[in-house]
Amino acid sequence: MIVEMRIYHCAPTRLPALLDRFTSTTLGFFEKYGIEQIGFWTTLIGPSNHALTYMLKWESLAEREQKWNAFQADPEWMAKRAATEADKPIVERIENHFLAPTAFSALR
């Protein structure tokens, strides 16, 4: 198992738009493509409260590549994403980490 941790750093005031996009659009596409989420978090205390952190569970990097690429190439997803950013961008930058559990991790 591999865990992908993604951190979306939003433009000021745009976090609500990102949360809405996940709720109303993105999660449906995750389900369509079999992308399994572990959880989503906003930052309570830290360097910025304009961030969304989430984790996805993959069996392998090959599975991730196949499913993520299909999701990203979906014309309906691309159109809906563009519509949410028609006025101004939501995300300024994305951090992406691939994590492997240790032998003593509760999540393996």
UniProtKB/TrEMBL annotation:
The organism's place on the tree of life at top rank: Bacteria
Segments forming domain NIPSNAP: 3-105
Pfam families in the cross-refs: NIPSNAP
InterPro entries: Dimeric_a/b-barrel, NIPSNAP
Cross-referenced SUPFAM superfamilies: Dimeric alpha+beta barrel
Protein name: NIPSNAP domain-containing protein
Protein's organism: Paraburkholderia dioscoreae
